[in-house]
Structure to design on (259 residues):
């Protein structure tokens, strides 16, 4: 009986710990099987076309390499996980690793055919058993991209490497302007962004689109959605002026981590 209680308790502790960490999902729609390596550590032996890795740390960069079965082709990219408690969903191919959406981990639907594992941080040891030095903490931020767009006078966090071009911004603006219903505007522009190979915007670009919406609720929804696709995330305070209510501004501050 004591052994059963102990197992249940350990399982609960493990579930609680991983619920507080970030997770990342890699998927391939063409049924191409792949292996995932993170920070040069292979995460699994079996090839799969869908995998969820739990136990990563939010607000951290990771180098991801995707190797495909029976193929020398691979995709490699530095990704950035926004925060703990979020599931970051990436679409992978033999040429790209593209962020599609970020959702709360608790709301991410489980899939029967999806491989689900805990992140291996070093020497094939799970992250929860790795020895940690709690005496020191390096707080210096390192940009997770080897090359990226340099925004003048910006020294904050960088969430994606290169913003969309003016023509793509114009297409998004056109989608919003041609729809008459607020709900349709929001839904269609979100879909267009998700369909991009590598969506990445500047806060000023988001604000331009944001002001095309009429209602505060819609603006807030769009602002929260765009955070995952924003290069200069520490500039998000520029969006506060687009909102009339303090609770809307507070939600954005909490999203950015400045509350």
């Amino acid at each position: 009986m004591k052994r059963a209680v102990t197992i249940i308790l350990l399982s609960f502790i493990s579930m609680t710990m991983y619920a507080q960490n970030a997770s990342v999902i890699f998927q391939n729609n063409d049924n191409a099987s792949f292996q995932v390596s993170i920070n040069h550590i292979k995460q699994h032996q079996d090839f799969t076309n869908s995998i969820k890795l739990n136990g990563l740390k939010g607000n951290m960069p990771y180098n991801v390499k995707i190797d495909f079965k029976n193929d020398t082709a691979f995709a490699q990219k530095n990704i950035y996980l926004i925060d703990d408690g979020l599931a970051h969903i990436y679409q992978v191919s033999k040429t790209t690793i593209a962020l599609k959406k970020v959702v709360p981990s608790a709301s991410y639907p489980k899939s029967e055919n999806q491989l689900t594992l805990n992140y291996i941080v070093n020497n094939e040891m799970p992250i929860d058993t790795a020895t940690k030095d709690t005496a020191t903490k390096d707080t210096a931020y390192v940009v997770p991209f080897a090359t990226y767009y340099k925004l003048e006078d910006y020294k904050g966090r960088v969430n994606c490497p290169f913003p969309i071009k003016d023509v793509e911004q114009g297409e998004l603006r056109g989608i919003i302007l041609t729809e008459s219903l607020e709900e349709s505007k929001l839904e269609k522009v979100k879909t267009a962004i998700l369909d991009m190979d590598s969506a990445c915007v500047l806060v000023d670009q988001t604000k331009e689109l944001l002001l095309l919406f009429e209602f505060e609720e819609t603006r807030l929804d769009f602002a929260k959605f765009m955070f995952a696709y924003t290069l200069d995330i520490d500039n998000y305070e520029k969006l506060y002026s687009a909102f009339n209510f303090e609770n809307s501004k507070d939600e954005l501050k909490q999203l950015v981590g400045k509350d």
Remarks:
- Residues 41 and 122 are 7 Å apart (CA to CA).
- Residues 166-256 form one domain.
